[in-house]
Specification:
This protein is an alpha/beta fold. It is built from 15 helices and 15 strands.
């Protein structure tokens, strides 16, 4: 099957299982509808979750307890017919409890590797910042390289592989801040936030008799997700938009309000997320609007404020939005070239 994008003259090579951009948008729409049966009135949050999935990334959901962080993660996982595991992070959790460990077999007199919960397509890391930094760091290799190394042996993880982590604000009791290296491995961060009055009323009506999660059914499978991800990789990124992404990320390293700007990994993640955003819109090429739509979730959690900015009660979200307003945007006629 040959899939053709909406960009004139651009065709995707025909390969078995390949999908076109119309199918990408259709599949994403069905997953979004499924998730919104559980998470009511939060379309932007659902959009960022889908962008992260299509960009082969990992999602960090940060907010106060009770607003649906875990429900979002479970709804996304249940919408895909694939292997799912959930890890409740606690202060006594050990790295081996996540990655797996070698166990001595008395019958064979050899050590055997027993995989941990990270060996799944979707890993839900619930309240990730309640575990110690040592345990949190067990996910670093998994998230960056899709593999696990235990006792000198390396084991590949399944594809697709996505970590959906939830965390409470670090001001709350019993939490540890995520290390900078681990935050940088999350493609995007979202905050669910409180629902508006109408959405909360609808939630009360729908959740009063049954949990929507219990009746949620998968709308796709891991094989189809892999094909969709491959289609997103082939979305065209013109040189002007590529330069726009690089300029935006490098600008964060020169801002006096920040003591740590975004890394080159952030540039790669921004590009991948922008391609996924374009694919959701049914386009075969990225425009500056795609970059702007995803810049805050992709960049804000990677930045560290300078003391003066903290004293002025600035947030990294405010700084990224301000940067978007100042950064020169490629001309419309050349952005998709």
């Amino acid at each position: 099957m040959t899939a053709t994008s909406s960009r004139p003259g651009m065709e995707y090579p025909g390969v078995e299982g390949a999908v076109g951009l119309a199918e990408v948008a259709d599949l994403a729409g069905r997953i979004a509808t499924n998730i919104q049966r559980v998470i009511v009135g939060k379309p932007d949050v659902v959009r960022v979750a889908l962008v992260t999935l299509l960009a082969e990334g990992h999602l960090l959901v940060e907010d106060v307890p009770g607003v649906g962080k875990t429900s979002l993660a479970k709804a996304l996982a249940r919408s895909i017919d694939c292997s799912v595991s959930r890890v409740q992070f606690t202060p006594d959790l050990l790295p081996g409890d996540i990655t797996g460990m070698s166990v001595f077999n008395r019958q064979t007199t050899e050590f055997e590797f027993r995989p941990g919960p990270v060996f799944a397509n979707v890993v839900i890391a619930d309240e990730i910042n309640r575990a110690s930094p040592k345990t949190q760091s067990a996910l670093l290799e998994c998230m960056a390289e899709h593999q696990v190394t235990v006792d000198g042996a390396t084991y590949a993880l399944a594809a697709p592989f996505m970590v959906v982590a939830t965390q409470n604000p670090i001001e709350m009791d019993g939490t540890y801040p995520l290390p900078e290296a681990q935050r940088d491995r999350f493609t995007a961060r979202v905050s669910v936030g409180y629902p508006d009055a109408a959405a909360e009323l609808a939630m009360v009506d729908e959740h009063a008799t049954a949990d929507p999660l219990e009746n949620l059914r998968a709308v796709t499978d891991a094989r189809r997700v892999r094909a969709v991800v491959e289609a997103v990789r082939r979305v065209h990124l013109g040189p002007e938009v590529r330069q726009y992404c690089v300029d935006m990320v490098s600008a964060t390293r020169r801002l006096p309000e920040l003591r740590l700007g975004a890394s080159p990994r952030a540039t790669l993640q921004l590009v991948r997320a922008a391609k996924a955003q374009a694919a959701l819109a049914g386009r075969g090429f990225v425009v500056p609007d795609d970059v702007q739509a995803i810049a805050v979730p992709v960049l804000a959690h990677r930045l560290l404020l300078a003391p003066d900015a903290v004293a002025a009660r600035r947030s990294t979200t405010d700084i990224v939005r301000s940067l978007l307003g100042r950064q020169a945007v490629p001309a419309p006629g050349r952005a998709g070239a």
